[in-house]
TrEMBL record:
GO terms for molecular function: ATP binding; ligase activity. Residues 30-171 form the Succinyl-CoA synthetase-like flavodoxin domain. Keywords: ATP-binding, Ligase, Nucleotide-binding. This is Succinyl-CoA synthetase-like flavodoxin domain-containing protein. The keyword Nucleotide-binding applies.
Length: 351
């Protein structure tokens, strides 16, 4: 007889959670993420990889459902939706046990302000369906039907295991730190590179985001720290290097400029979040006072994302410091922009 009920090991608000993967998880951080997976590898080796790569990322449940001989995604979803310790539910499926019930449960989550479902669906192509048949015995489902279920459910859709966990990490941090989900997609980018700004501007358009026009008060505040020969843009791409050059010529510390820029952008009501390009080099650490940057942004209700470039060792050092303060960084500009866009999508999903 298979297990037919799901129950945590505590009746209190802080449920301990459980892990049903084949791995041994004796040292991990309990957090707000739950996983439902038809792949044992996802709840084993891949989860180990994510836990060691992001030790500050917390997990509450990892539920393997295999070929669903007894319990399926439906029963686990019903349980996890009721658990207030779970903010993010990451799901990998190769088939839907009951598509109508799945849509119903996902739509229920859309009315819950602090809970998000992320879905990765395997077997959406004829070749993928052949592979899933030999894996979990999942029968082929029409791709149009699959896409219809995804659209009606209103979940955040991931295209790979990598995206599934990256999206889960982003939402986990947003909920844990009490950030406000952006609704309009208005974002600012602080960088020391015009090229990075140009590419990011293209990416913001690709993912439905926007660099808004700065209000007069914010623009005038930026003018104060920029040189006359290179004033700031009127829109929210801030190429900060000219302001740094002016500061160095006037023997002003770089952190004075960055603090001024961050405070200006964070107080601008038309900006819902900030992208940051940070050049990481042991030689030029003085240009990035990390303690000051963290102090400037950690208490903001707006999402703050970082893209780190430079020396690999220094990038890893800075990434660890940011992670301790729940400030996410991303390995590419596109991933940074895309992860902000799913926040906008989820904000507009809610009703």
């Amino acid at each position: 007889m298979g297990l037919s009920t799901i129950d945590g090991d505590s009746d209190g608000e802080e449920k301990e959670g459980f892990f049903s993967g084949f791995g041994v998880f004796s040292n991990f951080k309990r957090g707000n993420i739950a996983i439902i997976s038809q792949s044992g590898m996802l709840n084993g080796g891949y989860l180990m990889h994510v836990m060691t790569k992001y030790p500050n990322l917390g997990f509450r449940y990892a539920c393997s459902i295999g070929n669903k001989m007894d319990l399926s995604e439906i029963e686990f979803l019903e349980y996890l939706i009721k658990d207030n310790t779970v903010n993010v539910i990451a799901i990998y499926l190769e088939s839907f046990k009951n598509s109508r019930k799945f849509i119903e449960l996902c739509r229920k989550v859309r009315s819950m302000p602090n809970k998000t479902i992320i879905l990765l669906r395997g077997g959406i192509t004829p070749q993928g369906q052949k592979a899933s048949l030999s894996h979990t015995g999942s029968l082929a489902e029409n791709s149009r039907l699959i896409n219809g279920i995804i659209k009606q459910s209103g979940v955040i859709y991931a295209n790979s295991f990598y995206e599934l966990f990256q999206f889960a990490r982003t939402f986990s941090i947003i909920y844990e730190t009490g950030k406000i989900l952006p609704k309009k997609g208005n974002v600012s980018f602080v960088a020391g590179s015009g090229g990075a700004g140009t590419i990011t501007a293209d990416l913001t358009m690709k993912y439905g985001l926007n660099f808004p026009i700065l209000g007069d008060k914010a623009y005038d505040a930026l003018v104060d720290v920029f040189p006359d020969w290179m004033p700031p843009n009127r829109f929210a791409f801030i190429d900060i290097w000219p302001a740094m050059e002016k500061a160095m010529m006037n023997k002003v510390r770089p952190d004075v400029v960055t603090t001024h820029v961050y405070k200006t952008l964070l107080s601008e009501s038309n900006i819902e979040g900030i992208f940051n390009m940070m050049f990481c080099s042991r030689q030029f650490r003085a240009l990035n006072d990390l303690d000051q940057i963290v102090d400037n942004v950690k208490n903001s209700s707006k999402p703050i994302f970082f893209w780190l470039v430079g020396e690999d060792k220094e990038v890893r050092r800075v990434s660890k410091i940011l992670a301790k303060h729940n400030l996410p960084d991303f390995p590419s500009l596109e991933e940074m922009v895309k992860n902000f866009s799913i926040l906008v999508q989820e904000s507009n999903n809610k009703f």
